Amino acid sequence: MTEPAALGDRSYVDLSGKSLSSQSINPGIRNCILVLAGQSNICNLGPTAYTPTNIGKVDNLNPCNGAIYTAVDPLLGCSSTGGNPGSRLADKLINASLFDRVVLVPVAIGGSAAADWQNSYGNRLTAALGRVRARLGVSPTAILWGQGEADTNLATSQSSYQASMTAVISATRTAGYTGPWFIAQQSWNGGATSAAVQAAQLALV
Question: Containing H/E element for 117?
Fold first, then answer.
């Protein structure tokens, strides 16, 4: 079955093979809640699907319906149907004894530019933050931003990229999120990179 995509028709929402997980946070353990935003490198566009090995410790909060499922690629909430690097990252965080449970909240859209997130996709982040608060009663540990390739193709200037992302980040602050943003310095697309985009990403940090 599928759930209606409350965050747009590009979200992966197929619940086939998905199992519900714990809908609450155990304050007695080290919890990590990661919102995954941006474009292809942080959504379900990996060539190989992955199932976390830490069974029962890695979950996927579906921002489209607010329910929490045992994490297995493709993750619910972002675009496409392949592997997601968030699943592998969650295992690494647990295996390194940094956290006991990881909840992934994916909202990334393949091919999206920074300006898209300032405009048409901005509600995806604020809606995801609301889902986390409503379901878990806490704020995310961090927002992971992986995006820039589309802006290489668009020849986006440093000032334009910074302006768009400043607006995106500000919207999350207005929505009550006070935690960190981790911004990847990435722009590689088909052999080309953008010094302007990478400088903007570094300046945002």
Answer: helix 114-118
Beta pairing partners, 60: 69, 104
pTM strictly above 0.90 = yes
Please state, in angstroms and as integers, the Cα–Cα distance from residue 167 to each residue in 113, 122, 158, 163, 171, following that order: 13, 9, 14, 6, 6
Q: Counting Cβ atoms within 10 Å, is residue 106 exposed (0-12), middle (13-18) or buried (19+)? A: buried
Structure tokens belonging to residue 175: 């929505």
CA atoms of 117 and 121, how far apart (whole Å): 4
Integer Cα distance of 149 and 29 in angstroms: 37
Give the tokens for residue 177.
């999120």
Separation of alpha carbons 51 and 87, rounded Å: 7
Neighbours of 170 (CB within 10 A): 11
- What pLDDT, in 10s, does the model give residues 9-33? 689 999 999 999 999 999 999 999 9
